[in-house]
Design goal:
The structure holds two protein chains of two kinds. Chain A is mostly helical. The longest helix of chain A has 42 residues. By secondary structure, chain B is an alpha/beta fold. Chain B has six helices and nine strands, in the order βββαβββααααβαββ. In chain B, β7, α6 and β8 form a beta-alpha-beta unit. In chain B, α2 runs parallel beside α5. Chain B is globular and about 50 Å long. The chains are: A mainly alpha, B alpha/beta.
Chain lengths: 230, 203
């Protein structure tokens, strides 16, 4: 896949990349934003119920749940529900209609033209959406905690930047990038697999969604275990 | 110089084909079945590896040739449905040679009158998704894509001219003829199922 990166300099490949960035990233902003507000609200309410009026501990738990786990995971869930199914159905239809073979007949590599820009677009979208999710969810959490527990917002922000460390950010980026790569590869694999009839398209779509989710949960588990060894 | 050579290539488990196509030549290869026609085109395009015999492009193994040096004009279809007509036409050109909108537009605008088309038709036609086009329009897109790509060798299915008005068919044949003779190093191979009446020499 890495050897195909130079193909991004070709205009039609770049066009696919831009379209997929728009579809997987820009068009997911609304869904991820609302989800982040609600998750931030729920998480901080439960944390406050658990630890009471302890500002530092509240923020620490919020970072653990939102930055380490829920941010990358829930962004990946939104991406899977929107883009994984779309990738698999679009590529499956192209496969059944013989369009992938037609690309090869024109000398155009389907991996360079169809798969590589999707993988890069989804990876970039996953990293960006995760950061966006975390920013909104944490902002919501800080505001709600301030209102419920009478914390000063400035003190919360100060404590947040005191507590969060580089490793947390790094693991979050690694997770979201890994999730993006995995979702794109699994979806494209199921889309590109040889099919003889249109009836196989829905099967490919459901397999792509389920296996993407499985891959994300498995990778998330492994990265958490490796990244946060005490 | 040799553009394309089939050396004792077994096609569709039934016929053996040998021929040489040189620069500046436009020739028709007749095969007995539709399957054989597709197989010959796939062999020439490097999509199929011959079980017996060998295919050479520009004097070397087809696998070692530069991608995009052969153009392909199928009888119909061969298009990418999620791209608009204009994107389909420019896909191989811009993929292999880089984007140059102005030159491409100028080239196509010069080509339109030779194909009997006016600018109004062109404007409507180019923005349409290819799925909405009629069969003859899809064939026209395939033809335009091949001509705009301007490769050294064009492999054309003779089915391109089926179900097309005789006057249009003549214009398309002239356009392909012009393509071959506009530069010295070009060639055209038309693959036909059974006997067809085309102005080029039969292999």
């Amino acid at each position: 896949m890495l050897s195909r990166i130079p193909a991004l300099s070709r205009w039609p490949v770049r066009q696919v990349f831009i379209k997929q960035m728009y579809f997987s990233g820009t068009e997911s902003i609304g869904a991820v934003g609302w989800q982040a507000v609600l998750i931030g609200l729920v998480v901080i309410t439960q944390i406050n119920n658990l630890v009471g009026n302890n500002e530092v501990l509240s923020i620490k738990i919020m970072i653990w749940t939102l930055v380490r786990e829920l941010g990358p995971l829930l962004s990946a869930v939104v991406i899977i529900s929107r883009s994984s199914s779309a990738f698999a159905s679009e590529l499956s239809t192209m496969q059944v209609d013989g369009e992938i073979k037609n690309l090869r007949r024109m000398g155009i590599s389907p991996i360079s033209y169809l798969v590589m820009p999707r993988v890069f677009a989804m990876t970039l979208a996953s990293i960006t959406l995760t950061f966006y999710f975390q920013t909104i969810a944490i902002s919501t959490g800080l505001v709600v905690a301030g209102l419920r527990m009478d914390f000063s917002l400035l003190s919360e922000i100060y404590n947040f930047f005191e507590i969060i460390d580089f490793r947390e950010m790094l693991v979050s980026i690694i997770k979201s990038a890994t999730f993006g790569i995995l979702i794109a590869l699994v979806s494209c694999f199921h889309g590109m697999r040889k099919k003889s009839a249109m009836t196989e398209v829905p099967q490919a779509v459901s397999q792509a969604v389920l296996r993407s989710l499985f891959a994300v949960l498995l990778a998330g588990g492994i990265i958490t275990v490796v990244g946060f060894r005490s | 110089m040799t553009l394309l050579e089939f050396s004792n290539v077994e096609v569709d488990h039934s016929i053996t084909i040998s021929f040489v196509l040189h620069e500046g030549e436009a020739r028709v290869l007749q095969v007995p079945t539709r399957d054989a026609e597709i197989a010959v085109m796939d062999l020439a395009l490097g999509e199929l590896v011959p079980e017996k015999g060998a295919v050479f492009l520009f004097g070397q193994s087809i696998k070692s040739s530069k991608p995009g040096s052969i153009g392909w004009i199928p009888s119909e279809g061969g298009l990418i449905n999620n791209l608009k007509t204009w994107e389909n036409i420019t896909l191989p050109l811009w993929y292999f040679n880089g984007k140059n909108s102005k030159n491409t537009e100028e080239f196509i605008l010069n080509l339109l009158p030779t194909l009997g088309l006016d600018k109004l038709f062109w404007t409507r036609f180019m923005a349409s998704p290819v799925a909405e086009l009629e069969v003859w329009e899809k064939k026209l897109v395939c033809l335009l894509r091949g001509l705009v790509h301007s490769p050294r060798l064009l492999v054309v299915s003779a089915g391109l001219f089926d179900e097309v008005e005789a006057s249009s068919s003549q214009l398309w044949i002239s356009a392909l003829d012009n393509f071959v003779h506009s530069e010295e190093n070009r060639g055209l191979l038309v693959v036909a199922k059974n006997n067809v009446s085309l102005p080029w020499n039969i292999i």
